[in-house]
Design brief:
The chain is of the alpha/beta class. The chain is built from 15 helices and 18 strands. Helix 10 links the parallel strand 8 and strand 9. Helix 5 packs across helix 6 and helix 6 packs across helix 15.
Length: 415
């Protein structure tokens, strides 16, 4: 393949032209057109084939990209809004459609592949961050440092959905720009090393950081480059001033870490013993769910998390045609193992319980509180036009945080 582009990655145009699809969809469209079936309308639904094994629930993400992709096509799209909790099965064990498309199959068939990618990855990131947030609590700082752990072409995507999933900020410059936020981060070890070699004192890097950075950049000093973490923390505070430093960051390599919680406790204790109890401790370096409880208990005020966010397990989403329009009527039709027919997903917004019913069936009542349930999926596209007013990233993030108050880390709300 001859291509003048430097990097091997898809452009917006490539995706819109169907070049990132699986080839069998192109062949399918060709066959339908040849046989005069390209105008056949279908009802296709997207369900969760599986959540990561330890997840009882997920958070829906990727819809913004899907809407942009399908805009202008002669289809109707309905979906769970971004940021809503989602399940693989409802209260009665029926698979839950999180998104549906109605329209001529040949018009959107080539987009099944990128649609599934958007939803699987976007939902995977938001679900992972929501879990991290649930475990850490709302008052602990969580920054997404995931840009370096994934292909740079999608690092803004990771940052965007990590923030909506519950992160307080992101380090990726372009990701922050999409969010309308300022990127957040501290300093790298390379800065400390250069000052050590060129100036003879790596501590001068802290002073330079304080001198050069604008006032709105928090003074969080990296304190594990050469010396013991306690010694570097004290040196940073004493040289820059406790009234100027917000906190210190420990990024100790695992090979030298020992018990990370004990190192944190020691740093906090020694700072407090000298009157620096206002100095916060932020940690980074391979942090995941199992690390957070002990570190929070030890006194950590914030986390920089990269790999576990960028490499979040996907939410496995599948698309299936479950009804075909013939002579103006929807004919239930699905492959084995799937539930055919046009459906309505109901939710109790108080209990976060879902029930799936066939279109035309009576509205169910919540099996937990007895109140009438509401249809969950919202109109996103009608006749090719986006009719849904997408909320801001801040509004989506706030929705996620509110739902977390009602969710358990290890079971569905009705279990």
């Amino acid at each position: 393949m001859s291509d003048e582009r430097t990097f091997i990655m898809a452009s917006d145009r490539d995706i819109k032209e169907g070049l990132t699809t699986d080839v069998y969809f192109l062949r399918t469209v060709s066959i339908l057109k040849s046989e005069g079936l390209d105008k056949t309308e279908v009802y296709a639904e997207f369900t969760i084939s599986s959540l990561p094994k330890e997840y009882p629930w997920g958070i829906f993400g990727g819809l913004r990209e899907v809407a942009k992709l399908l805009e202008g096509l002669p289809i109707d799209l309905d979906a769970v809004p971004e940021g809503y909790v989602i399940y693989d099965r409802d209260y009665y064990g029926i698979k839950v459609p999180v998104m549906t498309i109605r329209g001529p199959y040949a018009e959107f068939a080539v987009y099944e592949t990128p649609i599934l990618g958007f939803l699987a990855f976007g939902s995977g990131i938001m679900s992972k961050v929501a879990r991290l947030r649930k475990i850490a609590g709302k008052d602990v700082l969580i920054l997404s440092f995931g840009a370096r752990r994934m292909h740079p072409a999608i690092s803004p995507f990771i940052s965007y959905y990590a923030y909506m999933g519950g992160c307080d900020g992101v380090s990726c410059v372009l990701g922050a720009k999409f969010l309308g936020k300022k990127p957040m981060g501290t300093m790298p070890h390379s800065l400390m090393v250069i000052y050590k070699v060129m100036k003879g004192d790596h501590g001068l890097a802290w002073k330079a950081f304080d001198k050069v950075m604008p006032p709105d950049v928090p003074r969080i000093m990296l304190v594990d480059t050469y010396w013991d973490e306690v010694a570097e923390s004290l040196k940073a505070v004493e040289e820059v001033g406790s009234n100027r430093i917000w906190g210190v960051r420990l990024d100790t390599p695992s090979s030298r870490r020992g018990k990370f919680e004990d190192i944190v406790r020691e740093v906090i204790w020694e700072l407090k013993a000298r009157g620096y109890e206002n100095i916060k401790v932020v940690v980074s370096g391979g942090i995941d769910e199992e690390d957070i409880p002990g570190l929070v208990k030890a006194g950590v005020a914030g986390f920089g998390i990269g790999s576990s966010i960028a490499n979040a397990k996907i939410v496995d989403v599948a698309m299936d045609v479950v009804a075909v329009k013939k002579n103006g009527k929807w004919v239930p039709a699905a492959k084995r193992g799937k539930f055919s027919g046009v459906k309505v997903v109901y939710r109790c917004l108080n209990c976060l319980v879902d029930i799936v019913r066939l279109e035309g069936e009576t509205t169910p009542k919540c099996p937990k509180c007895g109140s009438p349930m509401k249809p969950l999926l919202k109109p996103i596209i009608r006749g090719g036009k986006i009719v849904y007013d997408f909320p801001s990233p801040d509004e989506v993030r706030e929705l996620v945080l509110k739902q977390l108050d009602k969710l358990s880390i290890d079971k569905k709300p009705w279990e």
